[in-house]
Amino acid sequence: MDTTQDLQPAATAVRLVYLARLRDAFGTGEETAVLPPSVRTAGDVVRWLAARGEPWSGELAAGRAVRVAVDHALAAADTPLAGAREIALLPPVTGG
Amino acid sequence: MDTTQDLQPAATAVRLVYLARLRDAFGTGEETAVLPPSVRTAGDVVRWLAARGEPWSGELAAGRAVRVAVDHALAAADTPLAGAREIALLPPVTGG
Amino acid sequence: MAVVVTSEPLDAAAVLARAHAHDGAVGAVALFVGTMRDVNDGSAVAAMTLEHYPGMTEQALADIAAEATQRWPVLRVEIAHRVGPLAPTDVIVAVAVAAAHRGEAFAACEFVMDYLKTRAPFWKKERTPDGERWVDARASDDEAAARW
Amino acid sequence: MAVVVTSEPLDAAAVLARAHAHDGAVGAVALFVGTMRDVNDGSAVAAMTLEHYPGMTEQALADIAAEATQRWPVLRVEIAHRVGPLAPTDVIVAVAVAAAHRGEAFAACEFVMDYLKTRAPFWKKERTPDGERWVDARASDDEAAARW
Prior knowledge:
Strand order of the largest sheet of chain A: 2-1-5-3-4
Strand content of chain C: 35-45%
Oligomer: heterotetramer
Number of helices of chain C: 4
Helix content of chain C: 25-40%
Number of helices of chain A: 3
Largest interface: C-D, 34 and 34 residues
Distance between the termini of chain A: 54 Å
Number of strands of chain A: 5
Order of helices and strands of chain C: EHEEEEHEEEHEEH
Structural class of chain C: alpha+beta
CATH class of chain A: Alpha Beta
CATH topology of chain A: Ubiquitin-like (UB roll)
Helix content of chain A: 10-25%
Number of domains of chain A: 1
Shape of chain A: globular
CATH architecture of chain A: Roll
Number of strands of chain C: 10
């Protein structure tokens, strides 16, 4: 076993949720993923998913209006994910 | 007959209406009056009535908030009375 | 566009329904309902009488509604005002404005209320433990109306 | 203070009644009702589906209501939002705010709507003659929310 792994927090699975237009584009409403240790903030999640290539890269390109909710609360780009169980990607909302 | 009278418009009676607090203070809700020729504007009516003495002088003293409606339309102090049939004195309104 | 002045209890929901009118062009209805409080200026208020100036009242409300319609792209303005004796929690006034979008519905509704409060000939007389009293006009109402 | 998210038809009058609550401290209730239009961005709209994010939605609305209660001296904030399939003229959202005086009722109600429009996880998908389309967010909504 690589001993450097022991210095990282235990990797836990998070639920990723995609809503509305993003669900349609990604072809799925949710998945379970283990985030790499380098993904520490809400903004990191978006960049990490965008690196998967299309359709992720197009929908999540820098400048696209996508908001992140961490455990049901709207997050800023620098909101830490520590302990998050559910991370959702939201297109601009249009209710009301 | 005094011939100078012929130069004035024929004096016609107007209905004077007093509302709310003013009706209570004057002890009457309306009267019919023939205004003297010098009373030409909404402001003139207030000053003419104030000259009657108490309770008119107190309720209609300069600086008291009283509005005038001429034929059911709110009037400014310099609104002319020409042809008016009903002139109402209104305390500050408090509906709604 | 309709104006109602009545001594019967007001149904705010009916005023709302008349403004919306089941109209597919309407995306927003702002409704304001003024109700009788059981306390005012520190005194308990058991009852109130709303006096008005019959003949002028309806015209004043219609003029205010027309002014709102001129200033904002609204579809309908409905105003209903109670007169006569009232008890606490009774509806005094209901104003509903229907429009395509919410900004103009809110603005026009607030405008109508501000103008109504300073230009429509209604007067409140309250019955308190110390007897009857005419309600004083509020300077804040003049300031509100001066915004527009 | 209550939040309702439902796929059943909304009764705006019931939301209004819950806010007023037959409470003698209430002098003003501002109600906003958002309804489905039959046209948007130049296209006829025959039907709409309102998607939301169950679990977050109720929390987001409760947070917005709580924020309004902190910012203004209001007595009650009631929010009801429809989800699922809707037809033109259906009520999408109803927000009622009860307060002693009208200024704070209007302000808090408008604030709730502006925040809801930019922070609550709802998405409209319209059915037009050209097919289904997700509704685009409006820049004017961001500007409205930025006022507060």
